[in-house]
Amino acid sequence: MPTPYDGKILLVQVKGQFLARKSIGDVSRMIVDNMPNVDGVFLQTSQGKEWQGKFDNDAKEINGPGEIGQWVSAMASRGLDTHVWGIPHGLNVADEAQRFIDAAKTPGVKSLGLDVEHGANYYRGAADGARQMMQLIRDALGWDFHIALILDARRNRPFNVYVDPCLPFVNSLHPMVYPKDFGKPAREALDAAFGLLEPYGKPIVPMLQSYNGIAPADITVQGDYAFQKGAAGISYFCLGDKHMNAPEFEAVAAVQSPGKQKRPTPEKLPPGSVGLWPDDARGYTEHVYENVPARPWHDFRDAYGHGARWKLTSPTNDVAVTYTPNLPAPGRFSVEVFIPLENAEAKRADYHVIYHEGSAEKERQVKIDQSARSDEWVSLGVFDLDPRKAGDGRVNITDFSDEQPSQPIAFAGVRWVPAAASAPGGTPTTPVVTTRPAVTTPVTASQPAITNQEVINAFIVGAAKFGDKFTDLVAAANLNAIYDNRKAAYTGPAIAVLPNIGTDRKAAIAEALKLPPADLAKAAASAKPPAPGKGKIDGRAWGVHGSAGSAAPPRHMWDFWIRELKDMGIKWYKQCDSTGPDDIGDGSIFRWVLALRDAGITPVVRYQQGHQFPNRLAGVFFDKMSRYAREGVVWAEIGNEPNLIHEWQWPVEEMTWQKGESIRTLSEVWLNDAEEALRRGARPAWYAMAPTDWQGGVNPFFSGPKFQELCWRYIGSDGGRKERARAIFRKGGWVAVHVAAYEFPFDFDPFNHGVGGRAPWDMCLRGYEVPRKYIAENIGLTPGKEMPIMSTESGVFTPESRSMDGHERLPNDETHGALVLKMFDWLEENSPLQAMMPWCLAVHDAIGLNNADFPSDGWYIEQGGLKPRAVVGKLKAARAQRK
Questions:
Q1: b/e per residue, 76-93, with b = 16+ CB within 10 A?
Q2: CATH hierarchy code of domain 274-437
Q3: How does pLDDT run across 126-138, given as a tens digit for each residue?
């Protein structure tokens, strides 16, 4: 009988306070770093009718499905499962059952366990109450959901009250086997438990002892012997600083579970076979539709030593990978995929095979349960393939799956095995198969060995698509040596794994390499940057700046705000955080940001330090940054509008752009802070400047354009500084701006305005062109091409906003709402901005801060309560219509 514990090792979690000073993300990292063979946690969620949080005192405590969901998300981000358990008292059957039901129904929870022990803090009801409770739970969860019974298997209490009433409703038995507490050797204690429970005919998953100072050697013995006895899986009680530390971690890590044991590696390529891996120079291509920070790429080595890749599955299909074979001749082939032991847990991995029936191109879709495979070849089917037909036998693998939470999906080897040789190598599968006419673009079959010149030509073609210099891309990839002997065979890394180049660029280069050499040479000779085109209007850039300062909404408002944001189609959210690294409890900004992340809204965090300059960002903010980064929150603003006096400790006459020391200080602070942010796992932004200049004038103190010009001239004037800046952007840095339309049309040119010479105006929507110009001129990288650029404030201000003082105000809310929607569309269609986060969602207690400096700036305002402006309705309507 299969269980969600088969071959797995779990750790039992009781209270958050047992792991003080750690976030849930810290816990997941601690597990994978110290016990890589562990597969998940068993999370206690209730006692009787109360959530476990009533008996806890920690930010990780459980007070309902929301907190359970945070555990699920944090565990899943590192490939760990979450199971839940609780203690029934039998005193309030309906309420206690509801706690179990709510916990088990939390998306991503794998199973439910009920601990039926004897004692004042355990089951005190009658047998009928136990049956009634189990019936309520089973009726609510259905018979497909796995329910476990946790029990004391010594039978020192009557089973007819504590165990027998539950047995018809449960799928597995989890005897608590604590050798030190029982005063028995580990093997003897396990023999007794198995001897008592095996007659019940249900899978046995013993809960073993790792607390109370048990010898580490006995921890390992328990696990190994339990699996030898036939345990479906095991768990250890329990996580906690007082219970498990380095010796216990090492002991658990030494346990050999069936699910993690290394199996003999099968033959790689039977005679006559063709194989492709992600580290092959040709034939493997990645296509990225959306870069999602929470679902990045990871690299690893498979059983053959080949480079392979994995990422978390996506409900919206972020990426696809293509394997295009160079088949030796027409024939009948079994198309097979290699499922590695590690990083392959997706239950519905999405595969597609392209083939032909006559002249008609077809596509077969196959779903594979990667979690059920371990270093195995799995057949997608047998096909008649002909290399003379473009794309015949091509395999596409996507990251699409509706699994919740997302699971690791592996992209490793694919092979095409002559049908006569396929029987012993490939494992037959019974997949879900869909056949339909192919809609993918045909790809010419791969050519033989490629030369350095062909790689150069491919770089030329690929770079032209983005307006890049191909020499910059070659240098970034550390491939300058290919110029030395252009006729020699290329021996560098596979294009897909080249460093320091965006995935979209690598995909374009790999696509170019599919051309025959002569066609590739012609394409390179005629390559030139394309004319400016039109982007797709799809809502990808829609964002908003949250509170007007460092604050989170009241805890009871979180569900409301997240629902409103999602109904408006908001994808990005700017959040200021001035709090310390330990301020991560319930209701904190930190938890609010994680709630946004869990809702699919990408947070951008400004680490808000008052009067920051000329100093660097304080260490406590980098510590907070590390906490965020461990939770996948990486977009970071490490300073804000440094062209304004209130961001400095210096007097105005010292911080002005006309003082070389202020330019030098600001530039050096950014270089140092950005490098530290990268070390902490974050993606740091170049500072957004406040708009200051218009009508041809140059602000004599605070000019944003002058700060941009002079800072980047300083950085670019020295080779060391220039390379540091380029490295920052190559490793994840980006550019922040604060651009607004004011009274100008969206396409107003900040340089060619016809007033006062050519001094750039930054008080227009295209003000983002100012830093783009000076960064490109001085370090050779263009924001929006080599690195992202996003506006984290401004946009279209409300009619009453103080930001419009001295400017022509909008006549009413309707005009404001219409312009915000048009602005989003215009930016997506015409600009390089990855996101626009207009100022601001609300200035109100309901968002956590009623900032008197901005009384009328919010999309939601106070009018006898919280009231949305017209912009809210217009965005909701547009999202609903376009969806």
A1: bbbbbbbbbbbbbbbebb
A2: 2.60.120.260
A3: 888 999 999 999 9
